[in-house]
Amino acid sequence: MRSPLPPAVTRAVRSALSRAKRIPTSEQIAWARSRPIRHRTVVYESFAGNGALCNPEAIFRSLLADPEFADLTHIWSISDPDAAAALRAEFADTRNVVIVARGSAAYWRAVSTAGYLVNNATFPPAFSKRVGQVYLNTWHGTPLKLMGFDMPGGARESANTLRNLLNADYLLAANPFMAETMYEDAYQLRNVYRGAIIEEGYPRIDRQWMSDAEREQRVGALAAQLGTSLTGKRIVLFAPTWRGNSFQAPDADLAHLADQVAGLQRELGDEVAVLLKTHQVVHRAASGIPALRRVLVPNIVATNVLLGLADALVTDYSSIFFDYLATGRPIGFLVPDGDAYSADRGTYMPLDELPGPVQTDPLALGRDLADLLRPDAAAHPRYAEWAERFVPYDDGRATARVIDVVFRGREEGRRVRPVRRDDRPRLLFYLGGMRLNGITTAAVNLLNSLDTERYDVTALMAFPRGATTRHNQTRLNPNIRQVFRVGGMNGLKARQIMRRVADVSTDPLRAHRRLGHRTLWRDEWTRIFGSAKFDWVADFSGYSPFWAHLMLHSPRAVRAIWLHNEMAADRDRTVNGKQAFRRSLGRVFAMYRAYDQLVSVSPALTDLNRAELADYARPDSFVTLRNLPDLVSAEAVDERDEDGDEPEDDAILGQVLDATLAAPGIRRFVSVGRLSTEKNHARLIRAFARLASEAPDSQLFIVGGGPLRAQLEQQVRDAGLTGRVFLTGPLRDPVSVMRRCDCFVLSSDYEGQPMVLIEAAQLGLPIVSTAFGSARGALPGDDMHIVDRDDEALAEGMSAFLEGRVAPASLDVEAYTAEVLSQFDALIPRGAPVRAPHATGTQ
């Protein structure tokens, strides 16, 4: 039986296949984006193409009926075949109404060239607004449930939503609460969003206003669609939301819905018809439940038309009830899982403060609603207060006011405003791959130490796919805005190939100016950030040519890039006969001249990099900012593995480690670091072998993963050190091993400011280190025992510890942190940023 492919190979194959499938669509998009803007064309999309629904539908119908806009072409993006058929039938004789299948070539041409874009949710990740387009995002309701960064896992779940909002020119808010609580706070648009918020009510609510004749006609049409009779009956609309934390995996609880409908119907009696309107994401599944067949409203029926027909509304956590407040009719809330839902998903208002009866049982709620439907019944005591707060502008003319702003450009006399802003500098950090390595630890420690009341901080990352990257991403302070790069760079494949070839074969910045690649980079920046602007941007990773280049295409800002190591030595590092970084770091070095600040992590390292990289940047651009410590705890994640190795199963490995570390009378050395040539663990093993016979009560633990693991394990066996030297592999919690050892040892040939030295000093461990280039000054004071970089000197240093001649290291965390944060503050511009004249060729 053949052995399976290694995980890394499997991941690479899957990634390659996925990219190959996307190529035809990518070419369609790139070609479409090269076409001229059609300024009198409007593209509408609702709920990812589920139908002509919500605010986009209301705006569409109003524009279509207005002679002033008779020259507009209206294109609907539809993914549901039934919805497409119904729309085609309705507008078969209207030449300027076009339907395209969402995701098709025609769709991408429409989205890429329309002068106006109207969406109530999100366009796909490949979408990026072009210059000359006007994008109105209306969203689809005032939130009761937590949204954006406020909800569990919200940073990842909201990645494409945040991207769409940042690309929009206008964001529509039904009320000030929605503008402030959802847009500005939950999606953290304050300070960085440069479009405008329109607070003029919701166009879709206008559709709730209708004459008696219109109501009668629409009730008849609805009855025909359901295959039942609604004559002489009052309508109670039951509109629950979806369950779950992700639209990609909703829990519809469909079996229970039928029981709830039946319970309500039983108490309300035969003179009332209880109809069910499900959330867009679960309608297809609900339509397959036989018990729901005659009460389930078709997906294509406009929700607000239904609200206009309904004599009462029953919901749970759906924002639909905010719209219904405009009718003045009764609302009931059925929340059988209220406590659990509030705990798991969360709500902005306590359930016991809602403007209607709140029950966990449909029978009890049915009785409450029956009372409220009596002709002489008084309104719920909180109803008027909620209506004033959440539908203050919904008078039946919201659509006209929104069209005034977006399509006529008339903002005077309208409620249009920018997002809230303050005087905090806006900082952007690209953090790298968020793997278990020292760069990730340093990034998390720095960002979590920043005062978010003083700085507006954004972290840029690739979308985290694995458990390890997701864990590291969740370690960030929730007050830090998180932006993920979802999707890929637009542009014809031939142009992308030319860009890559030019970036490798020539100076990347000259190629970008001479060959027109600047447009590709600017488009990618806009695709991720829309119109967002920052005062200071930093490539904290410092190793990727792609990200180093992208950060240079931010709008006008001070730009910094981190030098975590002796970079010239890193470029020439050889592992298994290959210099993996030589080409990529060479390209990064070529971009140094366009950066204002080249940040090394210790004073000695700054001097080394300034001298060794003198051909690439001005001497005064090299600056210092030390790494910051974290509170050393069992939650620490600090494995130095740049290859993406997943940590060992600590539960299983821990049994062996615990037994070994618990043995009495043993003095233990520990080293934590990536198993790569620059760390030189082979020398550490040889040095330990020198003193092993003289110190039989000693052991050595090496924590880390990397390309040399097999070689080092063989070295241990060949030296007869099995049972004395332990290679644990990568661990999620290396600090727990460090705590139980007696001396920390570093055998590196070159380093930056290793995070493990800070952690060892926090733990009060004696430290023995080789004299790598930036060793002296890597820690405040002279707390390390530094030896020459050879086997004998390192062995003597370890012997000095055994003889009691190496004192424990220490770190005044509070004083050290204050000093580093003061240094960081000096890097940040105050007032308008000024670009240095050397950074030509960038935006």
Give a written overview of the molecule.
With 843 residues, the chain is an alpha/beta fold. Helix content is 39%, strand content 15%. The chain is built from 33 helices and 26 strands. It has an eight-stranded mixed beta sheet with strand order 3-2-1-4-5-6-7-13, with helices on both faces. It has a seven-stranded parallel beta sheet with strand order 16-15-14-17-18-19-20. It has a six-stranded parallel beta sheet with strand order 23-22-21-24-25-26, with helices on both faces. Helix 19 links the parallel strand 15 and strand 16. Helix 1 crosses helix 4 (105-113). The relative contact order is 0.07.
Total strands: 26
Radius of gyration: 31 Å
The percentage of residues in β strands lies in: 5-15%
The residue-averaged pLDDT reads 89
Main sheet overview? 8 strands, mixed
Structural class: alpha/beta
Tally of contiguous helical segments: 33
Q: Which parts are unreliable, with pLDDT below 50 for 5 consecutive residues or more?
A: 244-252, 632-644, 832-843
Shape, principal axes of CA atoms = elongated
Distance from first to last alpha carbon: 56 Å
Q: How much helix is in the residues?
A: 25-40%
Strand order in the largest sheet? 3-2-1-4-5-6-7-13
